[in-house]
Amino acid sequence: VLHRRLADAAVRGNLAVIDDLLGRPHYDPEWPGLAGVLMKLADGGSAAALARLVDSGVPFDERDERGRTALHAASASGSADCVALLVKHGAELDSPDGLGRTPLLLASRAGSGAAVGLLLGAGAAADQTDQNGRNALWWALKSSHGELAMQLLEFGVPALADNEGMGPLHLAAAADLPDVVERLLPSLQVDEPTQDGNSALLLAARAGALDAAGVLVENGAAVGYRNPLGDTALIIAARSDRLEVARLLLEAGANQNSRNERFESAASIVAERKDPQWLSLLAEHRRGVLDLLGAR
């Protein structure tokens, strides 16, 4: 009964009751249910209640059905206070869960710069990957945490693609993180494709990531690059209704009449849609091309 009352008080955050029960003579920190309570507290960011149980001797490196410890739970929730507490008590830093994800990877996915800083400062391995080949930088970008991605790059976390060829540049482009794109480009190929053949510019076009697309074009991305379906960035922009990205691509020399394997072009997609803004944009560009040819 004592331990069930303690578990209930901990989940409710009733510190006075917790303190009272922890002082009882029959309290056993290894009572099986308390490890699960510890996980809930770490996941919920309840640092004060967590501290009392950890200080009383409740094991904090036991695992749940997903292979996660309390530090995994605290990191996944982005609770820097709980991470700091568990790190201070010697929790395993680089232990992977059932998917191969370490606390650092989970904190990066959560976007908690404070938790990430604590883990790296305590000596967590910066280059570990999960079972899909995804490291801390990959997860930060997948979750669109641009500032954290820059922090990880400054720390020296490598810019690695995952097992499907999806790399940091692709992720940063799709998330419209132009500063990260610019930071990555000196060391990466601007038109490097994913496993399914899409370049960063094609992904930016699909997402309507105008600023990232601009940085890619400025750094030499091929506007005529085609994926295995024959789609160019302009075709994708037209299909996805990304008007301003299309304007950028046209000004960079993209061909509105270039056709994919289904014989679609940006011009044919726009003609079928009959949107006045799109029709005006393509007509304006056609006039510009004719004027240029006439001047020659």
Attribute tags:
296 residues; 18 helices; 56% helix; 0% strand; disordered C terminus
Description:
- By secondary structure, the chain is an all-alpha fold.
- Helices cover 56% and strands 0% of the residues.
- Helix 3 packs parallel to helix 5, helix 7 (103-110) packs parallel to helix 9 and helix 16 (243-251) runs parallel beside helix 18.
- The model is unreliable at 288-296 (pLDDT under 50).
Write the SSE topology.
Elements: H1 2-12, H2 15-22, H3 32-44, H4 47-55, H5 70-77, H6 80-88, H7 103-110, H8 113-121, H9 136-142, H10 146-155, H11 168-174, H12 178-184, H13 200-207, H14 210-218, H15 233-239, H16 243-251, H17 266-273, H18 276-295
Task: Explain briefly what this protein structure is.
This protein is mostly helical and 296 residues long.
Rg, alpha carbons: 26 Å
Coarse shape: elongated
* Percentage beta strand: under 5%
Number of strands: 0
